[in-house]
Amino acid sequence: MRELVAIVAHGTHETVERIVRVWDEGDAFLPIDPRLPAAAVDQLLATMRPAAVIDAAGHRSPRSAADHPDGLPPVPVLEGDAVVVATSGSTGTPKGVVHTHGSVAASAHATNAGVGTDPERDTWLCSLPLAHVAGLSVVFRSVLSGTRLLLLDGFDARACEAAATEQGATLTTLVPTALARIDPSLFRRIVVGGTHPPAVLPPNCVVSYGLSETGSAVAYDGRPLDGAELAVVDGTVRVRGPMLLRAYRTADPEGLDPKDAAGWFDTHDAGSLDAAGVLHVHGRVGDLIISGGENVWPIAVEHALAGAAGVAEVAVVGRPDPDWGQVVTAVVVPADPSAPPTLDALRARAKATLPAFAAPRRLELVDRLPTTALGKVQRHQI
């Protein structure tokens, strides 16, 4: 049987070489975020049950039933499986998303075609964590197309710009906070991920939509990429295409396939398709706030409040309320803690572009917002 091999995934070419070596041996790999605390790594290994771990120095240590609290042996993978990506989704409980070599290749082709990658003249730069699909997909695009690859072990604005000006990087993927810290004109094309892209983007940027289960982006600027199909059923976005996961990892190597009989995957994202077929994502279905009988999408309110005076960061959630059911609450990291924004000012800002019922009725000030490694706000922890 094929094995799952965990790899401590620093953003280095050594990590890429280890991935390729595991593939050459017919096995699949599980990337481990090197920033995880020991307890989180133990939980990940106990849940995903790899047969071996390759540490940051390249040393390979086998694992057996004795390494697991329940005494059960490692779980093999199926032939053709390429990678298992751990994703916590909105629950915080790790799930293993199993992708095959076929789905990895389909995603790489679609995303390269979407930006018009030319292996003869382009160079991909990856500064995103290799333990997540967003970073891994940049590596896959490069490796599978023969396009030159540069790696940074974490984002640094100066290093990112130097990669373009001194090393010839032409393509990269960034989250909005990183995009705001560089001169985007230094790159031919930038793929922007995350839930809060700027309202006005430079002309060389595209906004991506995708999940771990889709292997990376399935849409750029709301339009499906090659091979991807998008549908909205009962207000929920569904995706079909060869880049989708094979299954979620379980104690059975076959795993659990979440796709329906026709091959559609329910993303649990709320969205809509306009008359031109462009996808608009409103947020996770569970994020919807129902306040006084009105539906309020947090992302819309966050967009309205972004850039308001005194606001460094903002997330919007619904808090239980006896009168309203839920009350729209702005959770704000103030730019200057000694002079935070007022609720009245934020309400006025929101009401300038949104219905009055969407304006926040409560303000909470915090030092920081809980985020993933890619900067995505984790609402379930607020």
Account of the 3D structure:
The chain folds into 3 domains: 96 residues, Rossmann fold, CATH 3.40.50.980; 173 residues, ANL, N-terminal domain (Rossmann fold), CATH 3.40.50; 94 residues, ANL, C-terminal domain (GMP Synthetase, Chain A, domain 3). Helices cover 21% and strands 31% of the residues. It is built from 8 helices and 23 strands. A 7-stranded mixed β-sheet has the order 8-7-9-10-11-12-13, with helices on both faces. A 4-stranded mixed β-sheet has the order 2-1-3-4, with helices on both faces. A 4-stranded antiparallel β-sheet has the order 14-15-17-18. The protein starts with a strand and ends in a 17-residue tail after the last strand.
Would you spell out the secondary-structure blueprint of this structure?
Layout: E1 4-8, H1 13-24, E2 28-32, H2 38-48, E3 52-54, E4 60-62, E5 81-87, E6 95-100, H3 101-115, E7 123-126, H4 133-145, E8 148-151, H5 157-165, E9 171-174, H6 176-179, E10 189-192, E11 205-211, E12 216-220, E13 223-224, E14 229-233, E15 236-240, E16 247-248, E17 265-273, E18 279-284, E19 289-291, E20 294-296, H7 298-305, E21 311-321, E22 325-334, H8 343-351, E23 362-365
Parallel strand pairs: 1-2, 1-3, 7-8, 7-9, 9-10, 10-11, 22-23
Antiparallel strand pairs: 3-4, 5-6, 6-16, 11-12, 12-13, 14-15, 15-17, 17-18, 19-20, 21-22
Helix pairs in contact: 3-4
